Each structure stands twice: as structure tokens, then as C-alpha cells.
Amino acid sequence: MPPSTDRFTSSGRRIPPIQCLLTFEALARLRSVTQTAEELCVTPSAVSHRVKQLEQLLGTRLFGRADFSLTTEGSAYLSQVREGLTALQRFPGTASAPGKRRLKLAVTPTFARAILIPRLRQFTDTYPEIDLALQVSIPLLDVVAEDADLVVRFGPGHYADMEHVEIARDVVTPLASPAFVREHGPFERPEDLEHVPLLRSPLEPWRSWFAACKLDWPAPTEGSQFNDIGLMCDAAAAGMGVALVRLKLGAPWLDQGTLVRLFDIQADSPHAHYLCWRTGTMDRWECAAFAEWLRRAMA
């Protein structure tokens, strides 16, 4: 009897045909039978047949809906398939590190300094196979030095160009240095801020806090202005004036004692931090892994 042409792993399970794996990866990426067929130079019916063959071999559904979104099992299997295809594309003697994935993350400066960096060791310990490349994005303007896989934006949350999820919302309250308080205080009521320099930032408008205090004051139009909360905190710590700061972002300065709260009154910030990505990005397992880790870390 001639030997079978089927190939098995050491556990006895059949290895899926390579054309089925290539078709699955392309369809998961393109989400179009027609485009997948064009890329692989086959007919659309061949695409459907290969995916069905792969699902029958695995005993599970890989795609859940007509838009070719992946099932939970399909998403997990896609990461394995891509790792395997990447390994097959790597020739002997190449210098690339096996299994390493590069993830480019753009993040606002003070969020990175106060929130992300202190927690980042947890991520790198959990996912040593992912190399992170961090770059700076400018809050509200969303300026990024180069294309990033994931972007932490700060603003109102109306991002029609990208998918997004809110990851951090905070309250604001006035902070100043202890020396500034000694020189210009005491600060017993919000009205005591009337004749002291207020540091300004478009990221945290003073009117939100004035409204919480039931003060009908206009937003200050004079004084030093900053488009980065970290720089504004440093300026306040140097005694330049009073800064309106989110408590989570101001935590490093508060913990070190270089800034102190002036009042118990706080107000909701009109802005929040959002994790943003282009459609299809979460099909890459390293991006999905970081998004899930960040969600848990912020919770």
C-alpha cells in the first residue's frame, strides 16, 4: 500500500496545507474575497474552498461574520500562522531576532512620564518578544513624528479617522509650589486666586474649574502658556504661578512635594486620553496584546 501523502506533527495532527494558511492570513488582513483572490492569483471560489478546508481541518470557525471579522479562535490562530509564515520567510544566516515583533507607540509626553513609563516594565516582562519603539505625540494637535501602530491621544475623543477607546479620564485642581504658597498665600477660598499669576494651557482650560467653584470668571488671557502639562508642572514647581493640573498626571510632582494642592475643590477635565488605531491594526497580535495590557493597567 503506498504511503500517505498527508503530513503529521509528532502529536498525530495533520499540518494544514500552506496554501490554506496563506489564504487565511490574506483574507484576515484584506477582509475581501475578491482582493484575496487577486493577491494570490486564484479564483474567489478557491479562496472560499481553502478557508472552509482549513476550518474543517481545525474543527473550528475562523471567521464569524460576513465582514470577515475573526472569531476568538480565529484571532488566536492568526497570530500563530503569522509567526509561522514569518519564520518560513527567514533564510538561514539572516540577522533578524527570531520571534521579535516591533511595536511603534506614539504617546503624549506627560502621560508617558507620569503613567506609562512607571508601569512599562510589567509589559516588557510579560512580552519579552515585543520590542517597543516610543515616540512623542502632541496633545490636541495629534502631531506624530512618524507613522505609529498605536497612538495615545489627548483630547475630546472625536476621532473619525481612527478607531479608539477611552483609557484615562481625570479631575483637575490648582497646584503650586510650597514656596509660592508661602509668598502669595494663604489660599483659603478660590477667590484668593484673583491677583496671582495663573499658568495657562489649552489642554486644561481654567473655566472648567471656575465653573465648579461657581465663579463667573473669564479664562485668563495673560501669563505664561504651555502646550505640555509636564512643562507647566515644572514651571509651577519653579514658582512661576498656579497650574491647573490633572491629579494623575501631577502625581510625580505631588509625591515629591514640589507641588501642593491649594484647595479640595476639583473639576472634571473636558478632555481624556484615548488609545487610537487604524482599522485592521488589532489583527496583529502584538498590538492587541498591548491594548489589552494597557486597559488592565489603567483599570
Describe this structure in words.
There is one protein chain. It contains 10 helices and 10 strands. It has helices spanning 18-30, 33-40, 44-58, 72-89, 109-126, 178-184, 206-212, 229-237, 247-256, 285-298; strands at residues 101-107, 130-138, 143-144, 150-155, 163-168, 171-176, 243-246, 260-261, 267-268, 272-277. The strands form 2 sheets. The chain has a 6-stranded mixed beta sheet, covered by helices on one side. Strands 6, 7, 8 and 9 form a 4-stranded antiparallel beta sheet that branches. It is elongated and about 75 Å long.
Q: Any chance you could write out the topology, listing elements then pairs?
A:
Elements: H1 18-30, H2 33-40, H3 44-58, H4 72-89, E1 101-107, H5 109-126, E2 130-138, E3 143-144, E4 150-155, E5 163-168, E6 171-176, H6 178-184, H7 206-212, H8 229-237, E7 243-246, H9 247-256, E8 260-261, E9 267-268, E10 272-277, H10 285-298
Parallel strand pairs: 1-2, 1-4
Antiparallel strand pairs: 2-3, 4-10, 5-10, 6-7, 6-8, 6-9
Helix pairs in contact: 1-2, 1-3, 1-4, 2-3, 5-9
What integer is the average pLDDT?
A: 84
Query: Number of helix segments?
Result: 10
In what range is the share of β-strand residues? 15-25%
Helix content: 25-40%
What's the alpha carbon Rg, rounded to whole Å?
26 Å
Helices and strands, in order, run as HHHHEHEEEEEHHHEHEEEH
- State the separation between the terminal residues, measured CA to CA: 62 Å
Structural class: alpha+beta
Name the shape in a single word: elongated
Strand order across the biggest sheet? 3-2-1-4-10-5
Low-confidence blocks of residues: 1-12, 93-97
Annotation, overall tally of beta strands: 10
Major sheet: 6 strands, mixed
Protein name: LysR family glycine cleavage system transcriptional activator
Organism: Paracidovorax wautersii
Keywords: DNA-binding, Transcription, Transcription regulation
Pfam families: HTH_1 (PF00126), LysR_substrate (PF03466)
